Amino acid sequence: MRRARVPLGVPPDTPTRRMNPASVPLVEGRIVKAQSGFFTVESEEGRFICHLRGRLKQKRLATDVAAVGDRVRIRRASDGTARIEEVSPRQSVLSRRSPRQEARKPGPEQVLVANPDQTLFVFACAEPSPHLRMLDRFLIAAERFHLPALVCANKIDLVGRPEAETLFERYRAAGYPVLYTSAQSGEGVEQVREALCDKLTVLSGPSGAGKSSLLNRLCPGLGLRVSRISRATSKGRHTTVVPEIFALDFGGYVADTPGLKAMALWDVGPEDLEEYFPEMRPFLGGCAFNNCTHDTEPGCLVKEAVLQGRIHPERYDSYLRLRRGQP
Ligand code: GDP
Ligand code: ZN
């Protein structure tokens, strides 16, 4: 039997811990930052830097035990430290597998954000001109993770509303809410606030689209903190970024995930693609060939819908390019 260890210089019978730790109530919180085995948890009682309870760490799971966005219960100790005792089951996840495992057998997943409620993709109407095929790929990633997606068409002050709609109405037609904004004039920003309120939103979009400016409009100072992270990741793919979600002062969080672009299609097979274009779904299963790829086959309902203007030709073109493995 091991003898209880007593700190040096303390008489053996001095109680070093009076409180039974199990009697301290658990506090509910959410992980907002993860760094080298430490987790910052935001709770009603404040922010605490926590470590994981040993038993949780030992669990060999096919996923990260804890990640930003996870809802947790923590126990505070009298010495000011805190420990994560429980991690709630995830409702949703944005994840990837480590690249070295991607090629062969599925390895443990690396969680980028736990429990995201939705995604918001910000693209500028101009400066830089929007790369809509990239937006199509982002939307596929959202579909793949079963996350509702919102599109934000920013910088409408540069082109005017009609031109902005020419570019982005195809997404509304596909079933995605489109928010038209100008972070510069403030137009439409209120709708962004309403959309983000009380949700954990994964924010993404090309650099220069105005993500930080929009966040600054919503919560002064927040955009600056977020853009620091974006810049770190755009420097190179090996730059490590500390996963973090940012609290919105009107309620909710945003997660800035520039890496979404790279991961968008990591495990989407060509035959899965049709499912990830929501406007194609009503026509699936009705083509003359039941393994129709909606490319050159006769009797294809999807192509018919494109001709009838029920599917936007550019969205269909995006589908075809991805389906054929073209860049
Ligand atoms: P991020 O890289 O997506 O975070 O983009 P930034 O917020 O840093 O914005 C990039 C540039 O676009 C900055 O010079 C902003 O001032 C500018 N910008 C952002 N939003 C707007 C907008 O709505 N209208 C105009 N004209 N410029 C904007
Ligand atoms: Zn077809």
Account of the 3D structure:
The chain has 327 residues and is α/β, with parallel strands linked by helices. The chain folds into three domains: 23-87, Nucleic acid-binding proteins (OB fold (Dihydrolipoamide Acetyltransferase, E2P)); 95-256, P-loop containing nucleotide triphosphate hydrolases (Rossmann fold), CATH 3.40.50.300; 270-324, Probable gtpase engc, domain 3 (Ribonucleotide Reductase Protein R1, domain 1). 28% of the residues lie in helices and 22% in strands. It contains eleven helices and 13 strands. Helix 7 (211-218) packs antiparallel against helix 8. Guanosine-5'-diphosphate (GDP) binds next to helix 4 and helix 7. Zinc ion (ZN) binds at residues 287, 292, 294, 297, 300-302.
Core attributes:
single chain; 327 residues; alpha/beta; OB fold (Dihydrolipoamide Acetyltransferase, E2P); Rossmann fold; 6-stranded mixed beta sheet; 5-stranded mixed beta barrel; binds guanosine-5'-diphosphate; binds zinc ion
Indicate the topology.
Elements: E1 27-35, E2 38-43, E3 46-52, H1 54-58, E4 71-76, E5 82-87, E6 93-97, H2 99-102, E7 109-114, E8 118-124, H3 132-144, E9 149-154, H4 156-159, H5 161-173, E10 178-180, H6 189-196, E11 200-204, H7 211-218, H8 222-234, E12 245-247, E13 253-256, H9 260-263, H10 301-307, H11 313-323
Parallel strand pairs: 3-5, 8-9, 8-11, 9-10, 11-13
Antiparallel strand pairs: 1-2, 1-4, 2-3, 4-5, 6-7, 12-13
The protein binds guanosine-5'-diphosphate (GDP) and zinc ion.
Guanosine-5'-diphosphate binds next to helix 4 and helix 7.
